[in-house]
Amino acid sequence: MANFRDILNYFRPYWGLSIFSIAATSVYEIIDLVVPYAIGQILNVLSHQPLDKPLTAAIATVANAINYPVNQLLSLGVLLGLIFLVTVVRAPTQPWLANWFHWDIALRARRDQHQKAIEKILTLPLEFYDENNPGRIAGRVARGVANHTWTYPEIAGQMIPKLFRVLGIFVFIWFVEWRIAILYLISFVVILGFTLRKLKRLVWHDNRLDKYSEGTESRTSEIISNIKTVKAFATEAKELERQKVRLERELTVVDYRIHKGYVRLNTWQRTVIQFCVFTILGLTLVETVAGRISLGHFIMTLTLSSMAYAELEPISVLAEIFARRYSSMVRFHEFLQEPSGVDAVGLLEKGQPDSVYQFTGKVEFSHVSFGYEPQRPVLQDINLLIEPYQTVALVGRSGSGKSTLVKLLLRYFEPNQGQILIDGQDIRTLDVGNYRRRLAIVHQEVDVFNGTILDNLKYGRPDVSFDQVEEACRIARLDEVIQHLPQGYYTVVGERGVRLSGGQRQRLGIARALIVEPDVLIFDEATSSLDYESERSIQLAMRSLQGTRTTIVIAHRLSTVREADQIVVLDQGKIIEVGNHEELLRHGGIYHRLHALQETGELLS
Ligand SMILES: Nc1ncnc2c1ncn2[C@@H]1O[C@H](COP(=O)(O)OP(=O)(O)OP(=O)(O)O)[C@@H](O)[C@H]1O
């Protein structure tokens, strides 16, 4: 569970600089107080009242140094000089010695933490993405990073220095009249204490709101990605209604709980502050009339305490803003604390050259058992030997564990029992990144990145020669598609480019996989969603690959796997039949039944 400490740690690399810049800003805030003090003393000079002892001594020193008599003119000159120093001379130094760093630190930390968030996105286990949609994740990262960035300059550059200023004012007043200082201190502690207590409650509501907002954003993002289904089922009105209800709920929390709470707090603060200013005015007046403080000190005390109370409002506004952002910042840290996948070790290190591993493609599953949840086994005691360059098909009912077997081979998950060997080596002992680079998978849904078709083809191997790209496209039968694109290989596809059909995307996926020259090539239901003609093209492409490398094909349509060297039939997480097409038909088991069903045109699952 993330907390305030994580927010502090966000800026950890910059703590030294942070302390320096906060201290510098605070010193400038305190130096400011010299102005009302000097004005008070000028009043004393003009009304012929005695000056403070340290000031009298300073004026005498100046008189000695310049050999000039101590008189009204010299006193005024020294006081004016003091004001000049703390206003005009100070002005050009403050932005560089203090203010600069507040944004500098915030922006550097933003870069670091955004990078951490991207690292987390890249290393989270796949199942995290099954449970959280992109809108939710992107929203959480964007809000978290933005709120940290805005909050730092406000807290380090304004709130903390302002608190020091308030403390400085207390010290000044203490030297003039300690009773007024005590009253001033008590009022501050009471106001700030009460404000913090109220804010705690409001943070709780803000946290609730943040969760609601994430839910709304997540649904909006789902509507966008599933818009075809929404339109097909004509559920626009229903979706709108559902989002309206969510937005209404958010408004209720914002308006009646949060906003009203802040306005109430503000009303209370203003009234108490004005009452305190008035009380201090009364008391200081009494002290002045009684002759216990000078006219200059009367003016100074009033000016300083008004300055201090004036600071209370921005301090509590800043605390309020911080409170509003607190939960989204904490939720950002909760995201960063999500455990990375078991496969994440070393994934972010720069890849070594492709030649680190080279396999013949002999794959062996030895007594492999696995379950996503311990109590529900998905694969049980799988034993399977795939010889180099063989084509092996995995078939079986939906949910029988075909994709899971491939996920284990890709090391997205680790078996609970048994081991998977490649060329006799346990894949757990290999560097995961370099190992995966020797495998390639073509999914049912091929991802297309925004960019040219050539960029997409070279995604896994940017240094590949153009001849190799062309060769891969020829095998995958993508060349015929590219010929008809307006700019050939340089046609922009993806989000802002030409839309590729399902079959065209599949061919792109196959060519992209071939370009990395994998030792093991996997097709995960690559033809399931295609029309007959596209399926035939892909099958021809797959056929021309047969015998060139180890190939694993997951298929629902048995026509795709007829020519495989081995067909492995899975049922409820167990291998129940192994053989080639003819052998399995002769065997008369599940494969035979599935085959008969498909021959009669019925669906498999
Ligand atoms: N991330 C996951 N978390 C929990 N259970 C999962 C997860 N992925 C799959 N399963 C479960 O594991 C079982 C096997 O799923 P798997 O996807 O391997 O089957 P499959 O044979 O590939 O099915 P299909 O042909 O429909 O793709 C199913 O019961 C499925 O619900």
Automatic annotation (TrEMBL):
It is an enzyme of class 3 (hydrolase). It comes from the Bacteria. Residues 230-257 form a coiled coil. It is a multi-pass membrane protein. GO terms for molecular function: ABC-type transporter activity; ATP binding; ATP hydrolysis activity; ATPase-coupled lipid transmembrane transporter activity. The keyword Thylakoid does not apply. Its EC number is 3.6.3.44. InterPro entries: AAA+_ATPase, ABC1_TM_dom, ABC1_TM_sf, ABC_transporter-like_ATP-bd, ABC_transporter-like_CS, P-loop_NTPase, Type_1_exporter. Keywords: ATP-binding, Coiled coil, Hydrolase, Membrane, Nucleotide-binding, Transmembrane, Transmembrane helix, Transport. It is found in: Cell membrane. Residues 19-324 form the ABC transmembrane type-1 domain. GO terms for cellular component: plasma membrane. The chain crosses the membrane at residues 14-39, 73-91, 169-194, 267-286. SMART domains: AAA. The keyword Zinc does not apply. PANTHER family: ATP-BINDING CASSETTE SUB-FAMILY B, HAEMOLYSIN SECRETION ATP-BINDING PROTEIN. This is Xenobiotic-transporting ATPase. It comes from Fischerella thermalis JSC-11.
